[in-house]
Write a structure and sequence with these properties.
This protein is α+β, with helices and mostly antiparallel strands and about 70 residues long. It has one domain. It is about 20% helix and about 25% strand. The protein has one helix and four strands. A four-stranded antiparallel β-sheet has the order 3-1-2-4, with helices on one face. A hairpin with a 4-residue loop joins strand 1 and strand 2. The radius of gyration is 11 Å and the shape is globular.
Length: about 70
């Protein structure tokens, strides 16, 4: 599932339970909306395969400013 941090606008994907943003540590996270998920897909297409950290199940993207 792809998540979005409202505090730092960080998009990330987790394959396990998540309670805080891995970038800033705040608990102000939610499931990404359709636009944020589309942005992640654009990043995947533009930059190719992403690095997966299998120990944490984390894939990282920084959301572009709003």
């Amino acid at each position: 599932m792809i998540y979005h941090c409202n505090a730092c606008r960080f998009n990330f994907e987790r394959f396990s339970a998540v309670s805080a943003c891995p970038d800033c540590g705040k608990q102000d996270i939610r499931e990404a909306n359709a636009a944020e998920k589309a942005e992640v897909m654009r990043y995947r297409k533009e930059f190719g395969p992403v690095t997966r950290f299998y120990t944490t199940g984390l894939i990282r993207w920084k959301s572009r400013g709003r």
